[in-house]
Design a protein that fits this description.
- This protein is mainly α and 177 residues long.
- The protein is 73% helix and 0% strand.
- The chain has helices at residues 9-41, 46-94, 111-137, 146-157, 168-175.
- Helix 1 packs antiparallel against helix 2.
- 5% of the residues are buried.
């Protein structure tokens, strides 16, 4: 069982730090609001004090939820944007367009991954160029049927079949005897 949780610390540490800082700040603000509402509601009747505190807690929770939604959107955009780019580029490469490259913003994550994909595409593009050079060096006679060439090639590369004795009847038919 693997116990390595930080497989990509360069990305994981900032994300963990951001979420931990957000939670700590929210707890501090929430604690301050509890203290302030306790002092304010001490002069009210007990029922009204409970309603006031409850309303403040709900408001604080809604505000923190909005902040967390904004932080989540911002953070996931740094991952989702590059993944969309990778998907787009790989889709184009699948259709034979190897000249495309992944372009990321400076604050995006996955730069190393994008670099590796770009190097792969560059290698494929170079290999295709070499293959085209090799193909152009072969001369195909004018009027040659490409299907016939493929057929001859496939027969040459087909595994040999064991020799089976031909029947006498079949042999007579061929020779006319």
């Amino acid at each position: 069982m693997r116990k390595i949780y930080y497989v990509f610390p360069k990305i994981q540490y900032p994300v963990i730090l951001q979420w931990t800082a957000a939670v700590v700040i929210e707890l501090i603000i929430f604690g301050l609001i509890v203290i302030l509402t306790t002092n304010v509601s001490s002069g009210q009747h007990s029922d009204m004090a409970i309603y006031t505190r409850f309303a403040v807690f709900i408001a604080v929770i809604l505000v923190f939820s909005m902040i967390n939604l904004w932080l989540s959107t911002k953070l996931t955009h740094r991952f989702a944007g590059p993944l969309v780019q990778v998907q787009r580029v790989l889709n184009q490469a699948r259709h034979g367009k190897y000249s495309v490259r992944i372009k990321l913003r400076t604050n995006d994550c996955l730069h190393e991954f994008a670099t590796e994909v770009n190097l792969l595409l560059q290698s494929l593009e170079e290999s295709r160029g070499i293959l085209r050079e090799l193909q152009s060096s072969f001369e195909i006679p004018a009027g040659a049927d490409s299907n016939r060439i493929k057929q001859v090639y496939s027969q040459k590369n087909r595994p040999a079949q064991p020799n089976t004795p031909r029947s006498e009847k079949h042999h007579i038919k061929e020779t006319g005897a």
